[in-house]
Amino acid sequence: MPVQTRSSTNGGLGEKKGAETDVAGGDEKKMNKTFYIIFVSLIIDLLAFTVILPLLPSLLDHYGHKDKHGLYALMKDSVSSFRNFVGAPDTPKWNSVLFGGVIGSLFSFLQFLSTPVIGAASDVYGRRPLMLLCTVGVTLSYILWMLSDSFTLFVIARIIGGISKGNVSLSTAIVTDVSTPEKRGKGMALVGVAFSIGFVFGPTIGAIFSFMDKDSEKFYVLPAIFCILLAVADLLFLFVFLPETLPESKRSKTSTSVLSSALELISPLSLFQFASVKNVSSTDKKSVQNIGFIYFLYLFVYSGMEFTLPFLMHNRFDYTSMQQGKMFFFIGTIMALVQGGYVRRVKRGKEGKVVTQGILVLIPSFLLMAFARNIVLMYVALALFAFASATVVPCLTTMISVYGGVDQKGVVMGIFRSLGSLARATSPVFAATIYWCFGAEACYVSGGLLMALPLLLMKGQQKEKL
User: Fold this and answer.
1) Helix 351-371 and helix 440-450: axis angle, to 10°?
2) Quick one: three-class SS letters along 54-95?
3) What is the pTM of this model?
4) Which residue, 185, 217, 220, is CA-closest to 52?
5) What is the mean pLDDT for each group of 10 consecutive residues in the chain (466 residues)?
6) Cα–Cα distance for residue pair 354/344, rounded to 1 Å
7) N or C, fewer C-beta in 10 Å, the chain?
């Protein structure tokens, strides 16, 4: 059976045209089966992951009344200092949003630390055991959440969950293992669709839980049990159906490589340089670095605007939490339709063009958001926002997935996802500062102008390929 080959004669990193004549590791039927196993697993995982989002304000209020000292008080003081610095109003609603941003940034920062290490470990030990280990960690985090009668235990649960959330980069590595470059876009699009479905229905389920047993001091136990059941179901599903997609013969032979390169795998400078990816041509290494930097810049600006969107909708249109939920349902539905109907049909080599289109669409979207006083015009901006959300990341992921030999896919995809986590961890502070210090118009105009940077870099990347 033909397999993926590395252009080792010239030290190249990329998969050259004609290097793969069949699906790596199996036929097309096997490939599609693996695609859908990953698709179902991610939906289960993301439904559980997003259930907590609508519950965060109530959880923080609960722990605020219960834990008036210690870790909660320390974090509250930090958030209050930041709120005072940027001039945000001292109201329970915005305090919860800012506090939630701190928790979200912590989660993303832990993903930034763990994802490249998990990816590199999967190159040595295989995808399946690392995928199962991550799912066990996620399950443990939900069990601790169920038992978290203190804010400290709740934060520990989130820490374990953040460290264990390497399943997304592993999923993209698995898609890469079993697919040819021509078919890979379909797999990455399915990953994107799973995200859209999870982020549409998970918060909706969480909102339902928020109205159930809301007067009980243990209101979080029922949704936590629901998440535990989903996580256990995901673990059993993967144990029964997920095959190993990286045979031992194709794994990295240096068993100490993960520990010896640990600093490279968590150092921001090394990550931007993809320093842990060895034996590469300078041309291909530069391409990988460019795509990673474009991804970071894009997500840094995008995530910041996404974080401030609830501020904007409430301040300008007096949106309630329920209306906010409907708005995100609208965005998620468009994303799922675009990814399922358009992105998965993008032909090999055209991903860069689609990324350029997505970023280009996002610029007028942010400018419309900056000045729209009419809800219809705002929803036009949100539709453009949803299109960009659906296209840019899946296509960038497909673009970078062609680089790396079969024994380096995990570390390449792990570093790539880690850069995205770093962007999500740092952007809320940046965007919230601009929003509250200079106003919504300045925030979203800045977002539109800054989005020109990844756009120009993407166009430069495309010219280099020609």
Assistant:
1) 160
2) HHHHHHHHHHHHHCCCCHHHHHHHHHHHHHHHHCCCCCHHHH
3) 0.87
4) 220
5) 36 45 59 93 95 83 78 84 84 77 88 90 92 97 94 93 92 91 86 90 85 77 95 97 92 64 77 84 89 97 93 88 84 92 90 96 97 96 96 94 84 92 93 90 96 94 72
6) 11
7) C
